[in-house]
Amino acid sequence: MSKQTRTSRPGRTGVFLFTAACGLMAGLPAHAAETVPQEVQRLRAQLEAQMKVSQAIQARLEALEAREAADAKAQAETKVQAEQVAAQAATQAKTIAKLEASSGDNGSFTMAGGRPTFTAFGGKGTLQIGLQAQFDAAAYFEDNASVKRSGVDLGDGVNARRIRIPFVFRYGDVTATVTPDFGGSPDGRQNTQYLYEANLAYMPFKGFTAALGYLQPNISLQDAPSSNDFMFMERPAIMDVERNIAAGDARAAVGARYYQDRFFVSGFLTGQAYGGQSTTTATSSVGATGSVTTAISTTQPSNGQQTGAVMRVAGRPVYGEDYDVHLGFSGSKVFSMNQNDSNRLAQNLALSVQPELRVDTSKLINTGSMPATGVYTWNPEVGLRYQNFLVQAEYVEIGINRQHQAGAGLGGASQTPDLTFHGAYVDASWVLTGEPRLYQSARGGFSGLKVAHPFNPETGDWGAFEVAARYSDINLNSHVQRFLAQSVTGGVAGGQQDVIQLGLNWYPNDHLKFMADYQIVDVSKLSGATLQNQAGLRYQAVGFRAQVAY
To answer: Where a domain ends, among 78, 102, 126?
Structure first.
């Protein structure tokens, strides 16, 4: 309270006592019949009672005034303290800004996102070094009769599937990435090439990226997530065959991608994969009957490289906090084949794939070499997430355009029809600990997990657990009829493979992952001059993977 308020206290007391006295005097006429001593005694008692009430009220007033004074003082002190703290914070902010600017100029080191990160050029430039290491082990349990029939005995063992060390340099809107890869199937790439990517990317605004170099063009829903985020140890076989035609890892490409919250679109012109230029060439000639004869030579260089295009359109037209509905379409086209033929007549293509475990490298289905003038693929995509449950599926068709030639055969001419192969898969994931595989608009697909409670025995936390199931099919047969020679039908008996797969994944934290897969595999393949023999293989397999990535 102010001094003016405190000096008014005697005035309040006097008013009260004057009022009390007036009340007493107003009551005198009612007791005129009483004696003077009695009257005096009664009035004195009333006065004492009124004085006690007045004192109590006065004490209450003083207490209230004291509290108001204390509150005013506390408010004033708090205001001063707040002003002092704000001034200190402003000073600290200026100091931090100066230190950051200084360290950016001279170079600084942090662990952004778990990756060692060096910052320079006033904070405009960064260099990040990452790691992806995947070590696999597998055991195969084959049906003895089918082993004898097929002549294939799969071998147990281990494999360093991927050992990639990304070097990512960013300056402003430009990013340069070089990633060597020391893994493969088996350890080390079979063609001794150890590059996963080497490219430049330009990102002038959010959502748009233009890229040039050796990179992974976007194709299919299974190709959208990083291999760190796989549901199973490998992609479905049909997806690997499709991506290796004109997309895949370390593909020479130029193009762009653009995304917003609801959609993703990308398009790339592509060439050969890194290390894919063969020095082995073929020399072809046309015989009298019109048939093409090809002789292989290693003395001539390749005289033409493959050119093609890859496109993808995807998005989630319906989504909410607990659900995402994904729809998409991917496709690729090879305009010009890799021309390893001096006369540019025999442009050969072979489709094959390893099993959906990469410890044994046997390719159980294989079309063999096919003369081709062009290739195309197309596949629709669909996915649905509800909370921590995800299901997704794709269908793929691969078309081979071939050279048509005349000659003796069924109906008086050899048949060389265009070929069509196909495959599909459906898989599902359920995260037992509740973490969702959220949608990534920047990739046009579903991501991996962000572990809510990393492994910590002291707190009783065990990370995240996920169970998964998949059925996949690939059919590399086209224009095939049993007991009829391929030269008659013009078909290709590459074989068919069906895989039923179950998986269990444990994520101790965001950087560690352990996988266990169980497979039931049925490979059907015809062989012999008239495709009279069954050379397929039936087996079961278990695979394990330990992964570290940051």
So the answer is: 102
Identify whether the C-beta of residue 107 lies closer than 8 Å to the C-beta of residue 119.
yes
pLDDT, residue 43, reads 78
pLDDT above 90 (res 441): yes
Residue type, 409: G
Helix H, strand E, coil C: the string for 276-289 is: CCCCCEEEEEECCC
Compute the residue count for the chain.
550
Task: Identify whether 32 is part of a domain.
Answer: no
- Closest by CA to 515, choosing from 162, 29, 101, is 162
Residue 211's alpha-carbon distances to 87, 146, 254, 258, 332, in angstroms, are 47, 48, 6, 12, 18
407-422 per-residue burial string, b: 16 or more CB within 10 A, e: under 16: bebeeeebbbeebebb
Question: Is the torsion defined by CA of 218, 220, 224, 229 positive or negative?
Answer: negative
Q: In this structure, what are the phi and psi dihedrals at residue 91, rounded to the nearest 5 degrees?
A: -65, -40
Q: Does residue 232 fall inside a structural domain?
A: yes
Average of per-residue pLDDT across 285-292: 45
Q: Is the dihedral of CA 60, 62, 65, 66 positive or negative?
A: negative
State pLDDT tens for residues 323-355: 999 999 999 999 988 765 554 555 778 899 888
Within 13 A of 457's CA, how many CA atoms are on the CB side?
Answer: 0
293 lies in a domain? no
pTM as predicted: 0.75
Contact 43, 21 (CB under 8 A): no
Instruction: Please give the structure tokens belonging to residue 541.
Output: 């397999």
Could you give phi then psi for residue 102, rounded to 5 degrees? -65, -45
What three-state secondary structure class fits 330?
strand
Cα dihedral 143, 148, 150, 154 in deg (nearest 10): 60
Burial class (CB in 10 A: 0-12, 13-18, 19+), 444: buried
Domain that holds residue 98: 49-102
In a domain, 15, yes or no: no
Provide the domain count of the chain: 2
User: What is the rounded CA–CA span in Å between residue 460 and residue 465?
Assistant: 14
